[in-house]
């Protein structure tokens, strides 16, 4: 970090005592000129380093015996201005990450539980929306973000890429060189499932995401030691049972209303069935009556036709 390089000309021992960049910048802003650092500032300095009086004491002791050179007021102002800028950007980054975590817990909790908020948000951003990501097959999710490498490989008839944005997941880094492609394909499959669950589920939950993450962990263990992983059917059934159990616990207060609604719906369905049955019986009665009427009319028509034939024969003889 540039602040370390600049301020080390004045206080080089501070680099070994304070390792975090943001904390280093805060300490540099507080100390300013090392000659002005006294025992009276011990508690204020300890508050900057997370109430660690040991580190604060080490900073004060190092400032007394520092080998750094003096720095001009103009240079000190530039160093402090740059340090304030670093602290501001670091604070903004933390706030942005907190916002991303809270947003992903609502939009895609299972995807965030599986691969983390940052990688999950990158996948959604690259796809355009969670709906678009849920429509992609696992093979597309696997190389999402490596389109240029894919088209170049297809053009030159070379090897296609094995992973895109999923490479930033911790699972890919933990896999061996020979198993990176396998675990990438398996992880893409689970990401596709998680995105579909998040997109079409009404109540957000991380049950399925945790179950899918456990499956990926077991697959890594399988590649490393050969231990048999849990079957997908069993893992999904356990996750579904836990989700249903949570829904039942949350819905205890509204059981009476739900029962009343079910009874009303059942009564309505019975009434509709009764009306349909009555209509059907009436229709059957009408059809039976029409059949009987036709059966009675048929002999009369036959006798009438025979009489007409007999009369016509008599007329022909005469």
UniProtKB/TrEMBL annotation:
CC per GO annotation: box C/D methylation guide snoRNP complex; small-subunit processome
Subcellular location: Nucleus, Nucleolus
Record-linked InterPro entries: Nop56/Nop58, Nop_C, Nop_dom, Nop_dom_sf, NOSIC
Keyword terms: Nucleus, Ribosome biogenesis
Comp. bias regions, Basic residues: 270-288
Record-level GO BP terms: ribosome biogenesis
Organism this protein belongs to: Emergomyces africanus
Annotated PANTHER family: NUCLEOLAR PROTEIN 5 NUCLEOLAR PROTEIN NOP5 NOP58, NUCLEOLAR PROTEIN 56
A GO molecular-function annotation: snoRNA binding
Descriptive protein name: Nucleolar protein 56
Source superkingdom: Eukaryota
Stretches for region Disordered: 259-318
Family to which the UniProt record says this protein belongs: Belongs to the NOP5/NOP56 family.
UniProt domain Nop: residue ranges: 107-225
A Pfam family this chain is assigned to: Nop
